[in-house]
Automatic annotation (TrEMBL):
Gene3D superfamilies found in the cross-reference section: 3.30.530.20
START-like domain location: 1-127
Signal peptide positions (record): none
Domain of life per record: Bacteria
Species in which this protein is naturally found: Segetibacter aerophilus
The protein's name: START-like domain-containing protein
Length: 127
């Protein structure tokens, strides 16, 4: 059993779900903000490259304009990272929900890393 636990982050976004979805689900979109380079093979395995290191993640679930779930190839089966796009019923605002796994003592650092990446995403989409 993994020592990592699921944590969730939410970010309001000023853009349409369809535009946001492109940045979350395609190699070109993810390469704009998530990694330096992103490639996808025929089995829907994405290779994310940062500087001289790379990690592979399997696309395990995708719902158009709603959610994308990846599983790191080297991680335990129950761990994943996911992007969900929700609409606030009160404000009608688009909300990006990120679900990821980390050890309890690393959640704060991982959250800061996500926040840095999300700032880059928002800059790219003009939000």
């Amino acid at each position: 059993m993994s020592k990592k636990q699921l944590y969730t982050l939410e970010y309001p976004v000023r853009c349409s779900p369809s535009i946001l979805f492109e940045f979350l689900s395609t190699p070109a979109g993810l390469g704009e903000w998530f990694a330096d380079k992103v490639d996808e093979n025929k089995e829907h395995v994405f290779t994310f490259t940062w500087n001289d290191s790379s990690e592979k993640a399997q696309l395990v679930d995708m719902t158009e304009n709603k959610s994308v779930r990846f599983h790191w190839v080297d991680a335990p089966k129950e761990e994943y990272f996911e992007f969900e796009i929700e609409k606030s019923e009160v404000t009608n605002q688009t909300i990006l929900v990120i679900k990821d796994f980390a050890e309890k003592k690393e959640i704060k650092d991982q959250t800061q890393l996500w926040e840095y990446q999300i700032k880059d995403l928002f800059h790219r989409i003009g939000a």
